[in-house]
Amino acid sequence: MKILLCSIGKQHDSELKAAIEDFTKRITNYFSVEWLIIPPPKNAGILSSDDLKKSEAASFLQKLTKEDYLILLDERGKNISSPTLATLLQQRGNESTKRIVFLIGGAFGVEESVFKRANFVWSLSQLVFPHMIVRLILAEQVYRACSIIKNEKYHHI
Q1: Rounded to an integer, what distance in angstroms lies between the CA atom of residue 137 and that of residue 131?
Q2: The pTM of the whole model exceeds 0.70
Q3: Across the chain, how many H-helices and E-strands are there?
Q4: Can you give the residue ranges of every domain in the chain?
Q5: Please, how many CA atoms are within 13 Å of residue 18, restricted to the half-sphere of its CB?
Q6: What's the pLDDT tens digit per position in 98-132?
Q7: 95 contacts 143 by C-beta, under 8 angstroms
Q8: How far apart, in whole angstroms, are the C-alpha atoms of residue 132 and residue 126?
Q9: How many C-beta neighbours within 10 Å does residue 80 have?
Q10: Which of 20, 38, 42, 74 has its CA 20 to 30 A from that of 60?
Q11: Which pLDDT does position 157 carry in this prediction?
């Protein structure tokens, strides 16, 4: 199974880049993983928030295949524990899912078409975090889930 970590926005912040890369590298011990950073459209500054979300959705959705399992990160999603995330990953692997795609939407969220395409909507918190911090949390939580699946010591219950 492959994992694709996607974020709409700018490249990784230099201050968090090393930590994001560290957790991403750790995930490679379990699954093939990569980041896809989808830049905002060049005319983002003049677009309405709805038009911006439509443009971002079009850019993102064309990168998905029909078989991809999409997990959308959104504060209105379901709040789950780290062991539950591990179970979700393990179930996808058991069902021979070829690729799990995690998406962190743009500054204004995502367009309705992305919500409809999502197989699961996950909330890290009811709080809103800066996107760069969410990237770090996502990478760490995916790594944590992998360590739980393998019953390793990283996650303490």
Answers
A1: 10
A2: yes
A3: 5, 5
A4: 2-149
A5: 1
A6: 999 999 998 889 999 999 999 999 999 988 888 89
A7: no
A8: 17
A9: 16
A10: 20
A11: 63
pLDDT digits (tens, 9 = 90+) for 12-66: 778 899 999 999 999 999 999 999 999 888 877 788 889 889 999 999 999 999 9
| Residue 70 in tokens | 């999409």
Give residue 13's pLDDT. Answer: 77
Q: CA 121, CA 123: separation in Å to the nearest integer?
A: 7
Instruction: Give the alpha-carbon dihedral of 98, 104, 108, 112, to 10 degrees.
Output: 20
Contacts of 86 (CB under 8 A, 6+ apart): 144, 145, 146, 148, 149
Q: Per-residue DSSP letters for 37-91?
A: EEPPPTTGGGS-HHHHHHHHHHHHHTT--TT-EEEEEEEEEEE--HHHHHHHHHH
Q: Which helix (H) or strand (E) holds 114?
A: helix 112-117
Name the one residue in this structure whose structure tokens are 């760490």.
Answer: 140
Residue 17 dihedral angles phi and psi, to the nearest 5°: -55, -45
Nearest-angstrom CA–CA distance, 1 and 144: 17
